[in-house]
Amino acid sequence: MDFTKKSVNEIKTSGDLFPPDFLWGGAVAANQIEGAYLEDGKGLSVSDVLSDGIFGQILDKPDGEYLKHQAIDFYHRYPEDIALFAEMGFRTLRTSIAWTRIFPNGDEAIPNEAGLEFYDRLFDELLKYGIQPLVTLSHYEMPLGLVHKYGGWSNREVITLFERFSRVVFDRYGDKVKYWLTFNEINMMLHGPFIAGGIYPDQATEQVTYQAIHHQFVASALAVKACHEIIPDAQIGCMIAGGPMYPLTPKPEDVLEAMRKDRENFFFADVQVKGKYPGYILRYFRESNIDLDITEEDLKTLKHTVDFISFSYYMSYCATTDPELNEQSRGNIMSAVKNPYLSASEWGWSIDPKGLLYTLNQFYDRYEKPLFIVENGLGAIDVPNEKGIVEDSYRIDYIREHLVQVAEAIQDGVEVMGYTSWGCIDIVSNSTGEMRKRYGFIYVDRHDDLSGTFERTRKKSFNWYKEVIATNGKIITE
């Protein structure tokens, strides 16, 4: 890991590392934590029919018991978990509302009251401890009914259904939730069209995929408009899967390839922050014979832009025009070439704290909008010791090194709203559909073979992160 004492010492002399109102906390998603996948009127979502993570087999309907169906049983145990988050001093918790708890099939005229009541209880429990909910409207939880009946986000009618869902939850929770996100990692439509957009991989041509993306842009803008109307004191942002693309070599072709791949992410923020399609993507559409149905009303709607930009950051990538290296990289996440200068996690994800500094500056230089790091963390195999405690010093090191780079960005003048560590309690991995890939400060006795007591245990990182929050980040310099 590339972390130097010089960097720490430079920051030490500059006063406060983080703003006094910095939103420290953690992040989870309904489909990875709640369980109770058919309780209280909930319908099936795209996540419920994936047998093995984001790229797993897609089932017509669940034909067995899968980890996500019960997950870590947060649906029934949330008071216990929130008490632990409060013990750590969380100022915010990022979670999502499962669309299928509110509209089980996605297109009902009347929302499911039992689902609405669950989130009332959840948000009330958070607010009891002074924890601000940060809520994602759509986090890989599209109703399966909309996939089967409409073809997912490829169908324009889904825009209206999403707007209805958004307005219902804004009306219901407007006095409780002041921070919102529209679509989680919206750019993952290019990589996981079923989980991100309800489109089967064999149907995800570029024409279909980009049309679905356009529908999500319009739906996101309508949600922003509704949020501003219904909860004028709230803020609503977009959410991007972040991570810079480095040229593998200084060869001009590699530099331009890195720019092109970076734009695959920037494109999604450009539309939601600037309210219009950038010229480079319009050129790509022309040259690729992609002809989208974009109405004049759509273009007006896109002018309703987000208040801030949130993003996930786990790794950086390398780009090259070398065909042999690109062929070897197929199957890696986003099919990126490995960086020979970086170490990797147990799942092969490059570890690059300085890439977070680079990403923060990239986004801020381009948009000059507040930024929120809503996912970052280390997925690892955690094994409790003879006392039942996970001694996860490796996780502490990982997060500390990334937080140092956040502090560096703040010194650069980047406006960073907060940091929510991903999977702050062990959850089912979205990428692999397993429990053994753990991110949390809290160990959950739940395993891939569906065994376990669901008992919660504080890891070593629990008390460390508690101290990070209590000192407003000062402990990262020690």
UniProtKB/TrEMBL annotation:
Taxonomic superkingdom: Bacteria
Keyword Translocase found: no
Gene Ontology molecular function: 6-phospho-beta-glucosidase activity
Class of enzymatic activity (EC top level): hydrolase
EC number(s) given by UniProt: 3.2.1.86
Keywords of the record: Glycosidase, Hydrolase
Residue positions of the active site: E375
InterPro entries documented for this protein: GH, GH_1_N_CS, Glyco_hydro_1, Glyco_hydro_1_AS
Lipoprotein found in the keyword field: no
Similarity field: Belongs to the glycosyl hydrolase 1 family.
Protein name as annotated: 6-phospho-beta-glucosidase
Originating species: Paenibacillus peoriae
